[in-house]
Amino acid sequence: MKKTLSITLMMSMLFTLLVPFQTIAEKNTSGQLVESAKTAILMEKNSGMTLYEQDAHKKLPPASMTKVMTLLLIMEALDNKNISLEETVRVSEHAASMGGSQIFLEAGEEMTVKDLLKGVAVASGNDASVALAERIAGSEDAFVKKMNEKAQELGLKNTHFKNPTGLPADGHYSTAHDMAVMARELLLHEEITDYTKIYDDYLRKGKKDEFWLVNTNKLIKSYEGMDGLKTGFTKEAKYCLTATAKRGDMHMIAVIMGAETPKKRNADVTSLLNFGFGQYEGVKLYSKDDDLKTMELTRGEPGTLLLQPEKDVVVLKKKGQKTDEYKTRVKVVKQTDLPIREGAHMGWLIVEDPKGNPLTKVKLEASGSVEEADVLTLWERSWRNLTSYWKF
Fold it and tell me: Which residues form the Peptidase S11 D-Ala-D-Ala carboxypeptidase A C-terminal domain (predicted)?
């Protein structure tokens, strides 16, 4: 059931993007959930709530989990139409020289963005990552700068990148918490899971250099609802995994860093996800297509704009607990500049518990575009308002 919205105008945005309001984390004192990993976190994507953490802000090398940020910038470039899935990318000698996990690109080879994306998401290809980084930013260094700028935009204070691959480098680090926030942002691009949940596929199919892709995340095949996201391993980082799984209204994000073996890493991730799905359930308050606010734009065409949440608005509660009467508030960005484009960030929906404690927040977006009205339209509006005012 929808709750009554209390509409509040604000002059400036004071909230940091994607930082969850409430942490209901269980502290690891018994070691029952995570046995091998150095650090861990369990976060629910839709609500932003942290359900469990263990040294989640400890800086460690993320290995190929770095590619969560790489994939995020790739998806943003696709959304912004800076690249397209069907265009071909010519592979540089530098990209082809990458060691570690790779799809064995040759210098001068041409491959579509779609296949390169598949090579990153499924096979963790370092060569594919650098090829796309160069295409998007012009050079690997310029892409890494974008990675660090995005980390700052997301409020990640304990993350710094030196490359888009996760290959060992001094000053290249992140945390379980920061990886979960990156994963949450990436999952807003819902089509990414079309790639990350692929278990196996082929590149250059039917050619003599055909390459079999096999997902480095073996839980894709064995854990119910698993749809991503990215593994990682180096001798320094040990075994890492940012795993995502969706069931019903809940989309869990589990991050494990520094596990001793792949088997122990997968066991820790499974333990975290089982805890989340077993102990909690989602309460959907609004769907992403719900109209939550109408803005009046006196100089716009059209003159009104509907605001909708960027995703379903979900809060969590312990199974068996009574559902609270949640309060919701809308805070709208003061918007004077036109035009406004569809999907523009226009404010926040804030959900609070009955005591007024904030639980989560979801961005509100423009449901359509608004242009600046011409002089004739503005004159007609002024005339209608004037005649309406004097009408008895």
Answer: 280-372
